[in-house]
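Incident log, structure service

09:12 report received: a user says their structure output differs between two submissions of the same chain.
09:20 pulled the input from the user's history:
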Amino acid sequence: MSKSSKSIDELFDEYVEIANTMPTQTADNMLIAYGFFKQATVGDNRERRPSESSNVVQTFKHDAWKRLSGMSKDEAKKKYIEQIKAMIELSKEEGRL
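09:34 re-ran on a clean worker, output below:
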């Protein structure tokens, strides 16, 4: 089966697996990918924003996902795949992949 005939769900699952084996990425790139992943798998973020005394990483993750409110799950899957592809290219350029 060629990549073009795979469904968006199949491609998304494939790129989730690829992302899990990639070299460490910048925090910004990881937050972008996280937001798209959560929007693609859960939908709009309806969780309360962590309080100021909580872990700052959780607040950043919440905000990255919240910014995508209203985006369809399929659109988020497409954007996630694009983000992972961009991170792969950057890793290759930097000689880390």
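09:41 both user submissions now match this output. Likely a transient worker issue. Closing.
09:42 reviewer note: Residues 3-93 form a domain with the Acyl-CoA Binding Protein fold (CATH 1.20.80.10). The chain has one domain: 3-93.
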